[in-house]
Each structure stands twice: as C-alpha cells, then as structure tokens.
Here is the input.
Amino acid sequence: MEKHAKKLDYKAPYLIDENSALANAWGAKTTPHVYLFDASFRLRYEGAIDDNYKSKDEVTATYLKNALEKLAKGEKIDPVNTKALGCSIKRVG
Here is the structure.
C-alpha cells in the first residue's frame, strides 16, 4: 500500500486495519468502504467512492467527491448512502 500511495501521490492519510477492528466496528463490507464525517464527527456519507471501482475512465457518478463538496458548502448531501463497491473484506478471527 505504501508504494501504491507514493506512486499515486496520495495526499490523505490512510490506515491498515490488520485485525479488522474498524471494519467490524463500522460494518464495512468492501475495500474501499467510505465513511465521511463532519467536524462534529457525525456520519454524513457512507458507501462507494464512485460508481465504478474497476475503471476510473468509466466513472459516471463521483459520490464521495460530491459529498465532500456539499459538506464544504454546508449543503445537503444526496445520496447519503450508496452500496460500497470493491473487493470483499477478508475478516480476521
């Protein structure tokens, strides 16, 4: 992941949930499964980053980007929940 993050010049922090503790606590089903919180730590959006986890060139809906933009403007986020798309999380234990 470290090499991948450097190659793609990720600006945001990420973590590796080795024991699935966070995935289990939040009910994450896939990787990625996004949770967006506001400044008061209220969950504002949950689900997929976009509508195509296999091909960035075929994305037609940018759910997380839209939610971030709406949150920054103080506007209503819609949708607030989408189906998380990606590879299933292999649970530990």
